[in-house]
Amino acid sequence: MAAAFWTRFRDGRGIWPAVPAFVFLTIFFIIPMAVLLSFGFTEIERGRIQDSGFTLRYLTGTLQDDLFWWVWWKSFYIGILSTLLCFLLAYPLAYLYSESGRTMRLLILVLTISPLLTSAIVRTYAWLVLLGGRRGVVNSTLIELGVISRPIRMLNTDFAVIVGMTQVHLPFMVLPLITVLAARDRNMEAASLGMGASRLATFFKIVLPLSTPGIVAGLTIVFALSYTNFIIPQLLGGGGFTTLAVQVYEQIVVVLNWSKGAMLALLLLGSCFVFILLIGLAGNRVMRWSQKEAA
Amino acid sequence: MTHSAEIITTGPSGTILADWIDRVGFGLIWALAAFALLLLIAPSLIVVMISFTETAYITFPPQGFTLKWYADLFSRQQIIDSAITSLRISVWSTAIALTLAVPAAFSLVRGRYPGKAFAGALIVAPQMIPGMVIGVALLFFGAYIAFRQSDLMLILGLTVFCLPFAVRLVMAQLQLLDPALEEASLSLGATRKRTFVQITLRQIIPAIVAGAAFVFIESFDNLTVALFTASPRGRPLSVELYNLVQYDSSPMVAALSSLEILFAFVIMLVLSRSVGLERLAK
Questions:
Q1: What CATH number is given for A66-294 in this structure?
Q2: What is the Rg, in whole angstroms, of the alpha carbon atoms belonging to chain A?
Q3: Which residue in A133, A251, B90, B96 has its CB near the most CB atoms, within 10 A?
Q4: Which residues have a Cβ under 8 Å from the Cβ of B159 and sit 6 or more positions away?
Q5: What pLDDT sits at residue B9?
Q6: How far apart are CA A132 and CA A128, in angstroms?
């Protein structure tokens, strides 16, 4: 009996080898997520559940709060802007990768993957140095060049947060783009060039639409990461800077209002999924449109 | 192609204007690519450079050359302790994640049972949830059963967070295996056990090594899960560094960051030797 079980387990043909992972995820992921959901609709006082039962107070209270919508807008626009900036930088880099020889490809891969393995704090810290105060590199360079006469405030601004996020999340945009661009079918491009279209027109009308799956993947990942990041806003945005993700952290760790924190986390997660879905739908639209165009 | 379009763009030689637009356009594209490369590497380089400055504050370009900030780093017991805590936690989460991931990957690639797609979706589901939410959920769950923030809670949270990466890496490798090799081994008289160990397992070892390296470095660096689940006493290095970055302006922080960058390069060497960077990019 035991031997038969072992054989099945070892061959990996049945469901059994996956069961330990299921049990683990059920206890330490699914149930905690359910608890999180329930906390958004319960009164919690300093980690103690009160007997008042189910309440919609936190949901309605949050949605009626003007401050919530202001904070939400800030998270949204910071997320969108840094995602678009990421795309604007990552696409040319991924394209360069697809057009390069072995050495250049290796260089690009090393430079793209190594930041992924370095902690985000370390990379954000670099921006504190670059943008920080009077001695910041950017300011002192601009003064030396005579562009500005007095240092401008760069740290603790939206600009700093957007730049930091763009840089930290850049690899997540580059990698899916590299995958689609390096594997692309080059016949269409050759045909387009052969028919007399310019290189630039070919790039925008053939290469770009054909890489839609990679673009959608990159935009999805980077938006989700930027929208839910609370570390970079805290480090580069300064004390007064807040986003939805920062609010979740503050409510749970500082204010200790767990119900409100749980509700904000749920709204953050829910709205993030909605945007990801919209990006996916838009991607499908573009793909159908470009197929029609090609036909 | 319509006739009018042919008049505007006249073949590869092109008109002077079209040629010029092409050049400017691609010049811009290459310039953006170069800037992206610079943006990827510059911050790390700057951190490493300022870690050698002789000044007592962070400044760029650095002035002089000294290793005193590294010496300072190793004289701080709190940092040493938190580094040891982080190493211990990372070893545990790596071990648990791989123990769960490797069999699960086998089942998800080779298994034939109803609901396999759903099973696969469930196992990679944590990947869609931000680390912060995983950490918060675990913290709240703990409140229910009087399970407090601790090394154990952090290990469990990191394992949940990293499991999808490990499963997907091993799955990708399993999908590449040639079943003919295993069949040949069996038909040549090798036992199932021997075939499994010498043929199957041997071929997926690169993915297991890559998975381990990935989970280890992610556990070591992770802050989003750790801020909610780590014990307030005996904080991991990531949380310690987070506090230092906010409140300490001495170049010692740059020295610590430089060591982490060095560590990341070592991990990358392991990855490029095991599965190769091209494969990892997918």
A1: 1.10.3720.10
A2: 24
A3: B90
A4: A24, A28, B93, B96, B97, B100
A5: 47
A6: 5
Q: Are B105 and B171 in contact (CB under 8 A)?
A: yes
| Distance from C-alpha of B44 to C-alpha of A139, rounded to nearest angstrom | 19
Contact between A198 and B20 (Cβ < 8 Å): no
DSSP label of A49: E
CATH class of B71-281: mainly alpha
Contact (CB, 8 A) for A75 and A93: no
Give the chain A residue whose CA is nearest to the CA of B47. A126
Nearest to B163 among A21, A49, A197 (CB): A21
Between chains, do A179 and B282 touch, taking CB under 8 Å as contact? yes
Residue A163 CA to residue B195 CA, distance in Å, equals: 53
CB–CB of A198 and B254 under 8 A?
Answer: no
d(Cα B265, Cα B282) in Å, to the nearest integer?
Answer: 19
d(CA B97, CA B85): 18
Helix ranges (H only) for B75-201 are 77-110, 116-124, 131-144, 151-176, 179-187, 192-195
Taken in order B248, B249, B250, B254, the sign of the CA dihedral is: positive
CB nearest A93 (choices: B37, B141, B167)? B37
pLDDT band at A46 (very low <50, low <70, confident <90, very high): low
Q: Counting one residue from A and one from B, how many pairs have CB atoms under 8 Å apart?
A: 284
pLDDT-derived band of residue A150, with 50, 70 and 90 as boundaries?
confident
Long-range contacts of A63-72 (CB under 8 A, 24+ apart): A68/A264, A71/A242, A71/A243, A71/A244, A71/A247, A72/A244, A72/A267, A72/A271
Nearest by CB: B43 against A90, A123, A269: A123
ipTM entry? 0.87
Mean pLDDT of the residues in chain B: 87
Question: Is B103 close to A124, i.e. CB distance below 8 A?
Answer: no
Helix (H, G, I), strand (E, B) or coil at A222: helix
Rounded Cα–Cα distance for residues A167 and B36 (Å): 9
